[in-house]
Specification:
By secondary structure, the protein is an all-alpha fold. Helices cover 44% and strands 0% of the residues. It has three helices and no strands. α2 packs across α3. 1% of the residues are buried.
């Protein structure tokens, strides 16, 4: 008994399937990896968002490094983790402010976003 042709995998030598059309260069792959990144708060790998500048981040990081003054490789790793955690906190605060400012007050005596508070 032969195999039922409807049960064969989609990719066979006769039908190789669609070709991959993703980026080929390292630059293209790096750019493509940012496609789904919205806020980066839970991203596994830290990256700056398009609206963030390298200069701003480096100044932020340098200030923290100057305050903490790591003396060895392990301390430098801890400081890098602290810098990233603080940067993500700043992002979260910025996003919260954006969301709150977009919410109109429910009455004239309340401020933007105050309808989230039960009073």
């Amino acid at each position: 008994m032969g195999q039922d042709p409807t049960m064969l995998p989609a990719e066979t030598t006769e039908n190789p399937g669609p070709r991959k059309r993703g980026p080929n260069t390292p630059e293209g792959k790096a750019r493509c990896s940012m496609n789904a990144l919205k806020h980066g708060l839970r991203a596994e790998k830290f990256r700056l968002l398009p609206e963030e500048t390298v200069e701003e981040f480096e100044a932020f990081a340098e200030e923290i490094k100057q305050d903490l003054r790591p003396r060895c490789a392990m301390e430098r790793q801890f400081v890098e983790a602290i810098v990233i955690a603080f940067w993500r906190e700043v992002r979260a605060d910025r996003m919260e402010a954006d969301v709150m400012s977009d919410m109109p007050p429910t009455s004239p005596d309340r401020v933007h976003g105050s309808n989230l508070v039960n009073k």
